[in-house]
Prior knowledge:
The chain is mainly alpha-helical.
Amino acid sequence: MADTLRTLVNSSSFSVLQDKLESWYKDYHVISCDQNLNRCCELVELTSKVQGQLFSILHLTAREGGQYGGVDTIKSRLLPWLGTCFTMTTGSVSPDTSLNLIQESVEKERKIRELSLSHESNMQKMETQLSTTRQELNTIKQELADAQLELDDTKNKSATTLLATEDEILQLRVELRAACDQADLYKRKMEALEEYERQVRMLREEVSYLSTEKALLQDRLVRSRSPSPLPRRSRSSSPLRGDSPTRAQLTASSRHARLVSRFGNLYALQRLQSEALVRRYVSDMETAQRIIFIATVESFQAAKLAYRQFKLRVRKTLSPTHLGPESLEDAVVDYIVRNLDLYDVQASVNEVISSMNLNPKIALPAELDFTLLSSFIREVCEIAFAMQTLEPPLELAFSSDGELFNDTKYRRSYDSEFTAPLVVYHIWPALMENSTVIMKGEAVTRRGALWRSRSSSPVRSGSPTRILGSSRSRSPSPGRLSASRL
Length: 486
């Protein structure tokens, strides 16, 4: 039976029958009636051949089951089917439905076979992967065991070196503490040495000053003992009085260097800090830089005016009792240098703030004022006041928006247009000594600076009263004229 069934399967009779049915269905309306009948007969013959093979298989199967094997199946299914002329007559299933059920059953069996084959293939793949994974796991376990052995070996070695390392760390900490103590000691010694050097410099200046006075007094004593009447007649107008150096003249170079350094630090540090403080309330960078520049210029003007007034008061106080070897003007400057702390800097700060509040080019929000720049203005006023005691005094270069850029006085800011010839606004003023630039300022150059300068007034360097006072102060005072004539 198995060979007959294998032959039926290999011959694919049902597939051939299905293909012929489909071909006949496609050509049914095209071919003639005789051709359709011929094809139908061909299918009947093929069906009968298949049925003959199936009956042969049925016979062989029943014989293999013995004398009574398959009797119930033949009685219940085969004999009723043969009695009804090969048609199953049931009350609930029609011939078309029976064929559909058979077709669905065949299709389901085919799908089941395909799924079974796919399942078997997947199982084989999974078994292959599982075996590969097991091999990798065994390899990793072996590597882990080796790493554990190496770790144990490293721990044993580290345990032996840890004690020595801790001892070295303790020793290094002790040495570090000793080095820190020694560094602190050296630092204190250096500070003491700097203090000693400062005192030595001061003592040397005092000794030089006293030696000069001693030589002058000895010279005056010799002249007073001399019988010649000429020195006595020219005592009040002796040129030696103007030749005696005062403290201000002796310390002029050191004060000059110190003040220039303070002005440089003011530009490099405190200016940026003040700009950052203003930028908290003003979003525009240009406005903040204009505010700092105007504050610097106004502070210089206020300090110069305060210095002239202070100098007039000192001259008025010293002139009745002045009998020293130096001139009255030198004595006044020397007194101011010795008593810079008498300068009322707060009055100048208030004056600068008032002037900035009236400036139409700058403004802060209504709830704030320029008192937030008081520390910066105070420092500028102190430096400017001290600069007036030098000979010649240090001044700020004149500046105005829209002027021609001068490379000897200013350097351009990083955001400038380096081909623009005119200045839009200034960031920091230049420091001058007579007509010599001591320290360059900073300016911003851009295209269209001339048009912008016409639409806005130039930077105020001071109020009209200040400008008038400064112009008058340039003319020599009567006391100075009398001293020069003497």
